[in-house]
Model the fold of this input.
Amino acid sequence: MISGLLASSSTRVLLNGIPGETLFHRRGLRQGDPLSPMLFILVMDVFNSIVKKANDEGLLQPLAARNIHHRVSLYADDVVLFLRPVATDLHLVEDILRLFGSATGLKTNIQKSSVLPIHCSEDVLLVVQAHLPCEIQNFPCKYLGLPLSIKKLARSQLQPIIDRVADQLPGWKADLLNRAGRAILVQHVLTAMLIYVASALDLPLWCLKAIDKIRRNFLWRGRKEANGGHCLIACPKVARPKELGGLGILDLQRFSWALRVCWLWLGKTEPERLWSAFPIPVHNCAKSLFAAAVHSEVGNGANTKFWTDRWLDECSIEMLAPNLFACVSRRRVNKRTVQEALTNDKWLEDIQGHYSVAVLSEYLDIWALVQEVVLQSDVEDTHKWRFEASGQFSTKSAYEAFFNGSVFFQPCKLIWGSWAPRKCKFFLWLVAHNRCWTADRLARRGLPHPKHCPLCEQEDETINHLLSACVFARQFWNEWFSGFGLQELTPQADNVDFYTWWQQSSDRLHTSLQQGFNTLVVLGTWSIWKTRNDVVFNGAAPRINRALLLAREEAEFWMLAGAKGLSAMVATRLPN
Ligand SMILES: [Zn+2]
Done:
């Protein structure tokens, strides 16, 4: 079947829109065929095996002092081969490539390949050129869409990543989107496109900040440029989970840490991975989270670090005996496994220097604890991630863990749990943060503002007054709610804070009615705000009936669009 697939593929060339004659490929893979990647792997695995065999037989010189056995990195058609620049090795690889090419038809195109020397002299390069006459390039190169370098990446090398984010801004569409829509774009396009890069590279802070600026400006203004006045809420507040008062847009710094924790987790739980011999740059915050979040259950002790892992009653020796820990050299700390340490009490050799009383006392404690541990030679160590019930790492839980200890944002459920168009929820979110352009806020900024509340002409306008304390608002709420038999929930004159009133009223209702009620409040708030703007900007007279009509019309649309809670409210409506 496989040979049938390979032999039957054909191509036709479109010339001025007219397909030409059919060309049969006879061999090679079809693009876009889901089987192709698997066939490719089957074939390329042979190549990998040949190189591996040459390596194992000692025909290729070892790469470095470290135990690195894998010389080939294969991803789709990007093949990287790591070699020492000596004539025998190059000659052998040349032969392997030729043999492999003639056997499979996958001939190496030397013109399209390149050599990237790492610390090579001119003479050595001449030898390389004699065997592999391809172009000599320098780092950084691009591999799998990422800049690859042997040194720290410079600004100019990371700039394309930032540019790529900026290129995604849909300039002409931005004007057609409201802020709520732009927030979705920020989250699902501008942020999501970074996941791959941020998990592979440890992006520096300046780079994340530059991307943050693009995201911020697009969210608030729909442009690449914006000033502080356009941004109603500061970036760090916006980029928080909704439960903590943000918009649920990812905080890039914390998110990039969380993605990096994944490498530590994989290094711990799957130490046989090919890259595990290499040091992976991980930010200290990510390291600390990892240390705090992983508990080890010791089996044979081979994959648990004696000094730093949490393996003694979910604690590490570093925590239990800080003075004793200070007497152990860094090198030993990083290397010593539980298995080694407990064999003939080797851990005692790690402790150096003078024993103070504190050290001695801790030493005796640890001694007693360690004596109780019995290793099971046939059981592997297991590691558990404490932020997931399954014990398995997830980037989401790691990201959330970086917000541990933050204050819960009370209106979260009221706003985001109600059924309402996003633009209305977004407005209520601004209300919760007191960022609507009411008279008090305009006055603080020295901007022209109405003297009194435009709806009642009596008191100063603040958002809390406008939505719950104002005479106009209270009358509106009363009439609006009485349509649903809920008039006893109307805000009273002494209800100062809009959200406190909302929360208390919602709590008085049965759970089944709460979502519907929350939607009613969002609708009412939206309607009051529209009426207020109509008065301020169009000089209309504040009329309760108009506001009610607006809310009722809007409610019809919302129900048609699927506001179930609201429909249930209307269905159970009590007679007036
Ligand atoms: Zn008023």
In short: The two ends are 74 Å apart (CA to CA). The first helix runs from residue 2 to 8. Residues 3 and 555 are 62 Å apart (CA to CA).
